[in-house]
What we know:
Bound molecules: zinc ion
Keywords: Kinase, Transferase
InterPro entries: ATPase_NBD (IPR043129), ROK (IPR000600)
CATH topology of the largest domain: Nucleotidyltransferase, domain 5
CATH superfamily of the largest domain: ATPase, nucleotide binding domain
Radius of gyration: 20 Å
Family: Belongs to the ROK (NagC/XylR) family.
Oligomer: single chain
GO molecular function, one term: kinase activity
Helix content: 25-40%
Mean pLDDT: 95
Strand order of the largest sheet: 3-2-1-4-7
Number of helices: 10
Distance between the termini: 17 Å
CATH architecture of the largest domain: 2-Layer Sandwich
Protein name: Glucokinase
Number of strands: 12
Amino acid sequence: MTLILALDFGGTKLAAAVTQLGSREWLRYERRLSPIDGNATTDLAIMRSLIYSLLQDATPDAIGVSFGGPVDFTTGTVRLSHHVPGWENLPLKDLLEKEFAISAIVDNDANVAALGEHRFGAGEGYDSLFYITISTGVGGGWIINGQPWRGNAGMAGEIGHIVVNPAGPVCLCGKQGCVERLASGPYMAQDAKEYLFKPANQLQGQQLRSLVNDNLDLITGQIISQAATQGDELAIKILQSGAWALGVGIGNVANLINPQRFILGGSVTKAGEIWWNTVQKTARETALPEIDFEIVSAALGDDAPLWGAVALAESALISK
Length: 320
Ligand SMILES: [Zn+2]
């Protein structure tokens, strides 16, 4: 029996699973929240304990790893994590290969999730697709001609930092009006809070306010989606402006690369019909009429990076 170990280092959660080569089901699976004040050392310690509890006495034949941040794919070295300190230039592939004495392949989560959806999910049978995750950040991963396309030094797919409104608010990356600045959950929440804190806007966002019992600090992307579903005008406006930004990004990407499918995953995609309709309509209006594409929901949900890690590990076994 050929055993594959799949690991997912997310910004807020850690997951590990084992499966058999060729299987579509987990033999064992564990998921943990990453501690709020954690760092690379604590994340690695938690992951190590998950791994040993999953493996029991078995030895895996290959390890695939999804990492929530930029990774140098050729060396398997993490460049950094935007959420967890201490990951700067950490040789994750080397660490795992030394500890388990087998091949490990490490890539960033959007590339890995794209691979997972292509191999096991909404991208099965498609030759070209762009996977986009919209949650705490916005990232993307390519499959072109049936293969991952990572770009020079693994940096392809950064749809989150395509500028859609040069006069817009300042993004984490320093530019203005990026897709991520408008469409990610935390930024939508921040915009809602700032607006509602202004004395002149005290009578607005009633559903939003009541969902958090007037404690505006508790507003999240998910609360905005909920309020929008209840008809809150401010929540609808913010959600639509995020969806519009993403739609413009998708339409431009369609013009440039012309993939068959856009597959959308991540927590913000659970925002409901208003969000999805705006994304579809805006992307369609942005792209040339001759350019055909579909925008669909990811099929593997939160497990897309883990299944992509399985596909990575399989490729390590094949190339052996
Ligand atoms: Zn940016």
